[in-house]
Write a structure and sequence with these properties.
This protein is an alpha/beta fold and 348 residues long. The protein has 2 domains: 199 residues, TIM Barrel (Alpha-Beta Barrel); 120 residues, Lyase, Ornithine Decarboxylase, Chain A, domain 1 (Beta Barrel), CATH 2.40.37. 26% of the residues lie in helices and 23% in strands. β6, α6 and β7 form a beta-alpha-beta unit. α1 crosses α3. The two termini are 28 Å apart. Bound molecules: pyridoxal-5'-phosphate. The site of pyridoxal-5'-phosphate has 11 residues, from α9.
Length: 348
């Protein structure tokens, strides 16, 4: 069999940065244990590798959304704790009952289902105001939950990344509701919640975004390092003459002769059209602007300032998450979780 040629686009993934980010979040979490949200394939970095690096740092509590995601990572967890945030549907039960992962029970139906089946240890999500998943306050009662072995009772902040009165309201509601539930541990904070201070930490924190280089709030700025660096190969170098246009919609007009590099990267790779006319490629100390629209598989970079770049050379794509989010209008979460399958993922 012939070997496949290497992909013309790659993600350089910085394991030292990932580990340092977790250590910072763990220190900020104080006496609380620091876990890791690894749903969506570790925010699209690759859950298996993320798990390996975080286990080595001492992380022992992991969170995924679905049982499919649980199945993917369980072989690599070495017995660490795994919670499945979306709980158990009827069709999850056979798998969930056999699995060492715990469901996070969200609704009275899920609670009833787990009890009726004599399921083992579980977690419980209570809703403290977000109105997404979780038992509403009126239902989060000792009576409903009696008979369950609850490892962790948790809730989730709606506005942790903002200055919002909702944070302290959710905190107060969580303190009140969780007290009566008889769980071994309490957990409220995601990445942003960790930055809100010790009142929000309880026994276990659940960062996701900040592990992977996202900066959820100003407090984390300067402490969280970039983990993901996309790069793409130059497929063609060309000259456009003054007055010519570039790309779909002819949105970019060259006012004078320009040199372009056409890179193997596009919106099908999660580099979405919000970067049209706004993205940047990095080469040595140059910041090279993206011109025209992002296509499905291609972007055009103005390399007039980099005379020696050639077909076959690689350019890093500026992807510092807070900055790239501001430029593209996408959230830091969307930037990560859109990263597609065509990149070769290279851990360093
Ligand atoms: C995704 C998720 C997290 C992690 O949130 P980040 O904002 O990425 O840190 C924590 N808890 C729950 C319930 C989640 O769904």
């Amino acid at each position: 069999m012939l070997d496949l040629p290497p992909a013309p686009l790659a993600l350089d993934l910085d394991s030292a940065a990932l580990r340092a980010n977790w250590r910072w979040l763990a220190r900020q979490s104080g006496v609380a244990a620091c876990g890791a949200a690894i749903k969506a394939n570790g925010y699209c970095l690759g859950a298996r590798e993320v798990v390996g690096h975080l286990l080595a740092e001492g992380c022992r509590d992991f969170f995924v959304a679905t049982w499919g995601e649980a199945a993917d990572v369980l072989p690599y967890l070495g017995g660490a704790s795994l919670s499945v945030l979306h709980g158990v549907r009827e069709e999850d039960m056979p798998f969930a009952l056999e699995s060492p992962a715990r469901p996070v029970l969200n609704s009275p139906d899920q609670v009833a289902r787990w009890k009726a089946a004599g399921g083992g240890a579980c977690d419980v999500m209570i809703d403290t105001g977000m109105n997404r998943l979780g038992l509403p306050p009126t239902q989060a009662s000792r009576a409903l939950l009696s008979g369950l072995t609850i490892e962790t009772v948790m809730s989730h902040l709606a506005c942790g990344d903002e200055e919002s009165p909702m944070n302290s309201e959710q905190l107060a509601t969580f303190i009140g509701l969780s007290a009566g539930i008889g769980a071994r541990r309490r957990s409220l904070a995601n990445s942003a919640g960790i930055c809100l201070g010790p009142d929000y930490h309880f026994d276990l924190t659940r960062p996701g975004l900040a592990l992977y280089g996202g900066v959820p709030r100003g407090e984390a700025s300067g402490h969280i390092s970039q983990v993901v660096r996309p790069r793409a190969q130059i497929l063609q170098r060309r000259t456009v003459r003054g007055g010519e246009t570039v790309g779909y919609g002819a949105t970019y007009v060259a006012h004078e002769d320009r040199e372009l590099a056409i890179l193997n990267l596009g919106y099908a790779d999660g580099y979405l059209r919000g970067f049209s006319g706004k993205g940047l490629a990095l080469f040595q100390d140059l910041r090279l602007p993206l011109v025209g629209r992002v296509s499905m598989d291609l972007i055009a970079i103005d390399v007039t300032a980099a005379a020696h770049l050639r077909e076959g050379d690689w350019l890093e794509i500026a992807f510092d998450l807070p900055t790239a989010a501001a430029r593209s209008g996408l959230s830091q979460y969307e930037l990560l979780t859109g990263l597609g399958r065509r990149y070769e993922r290279i851990w360093r």
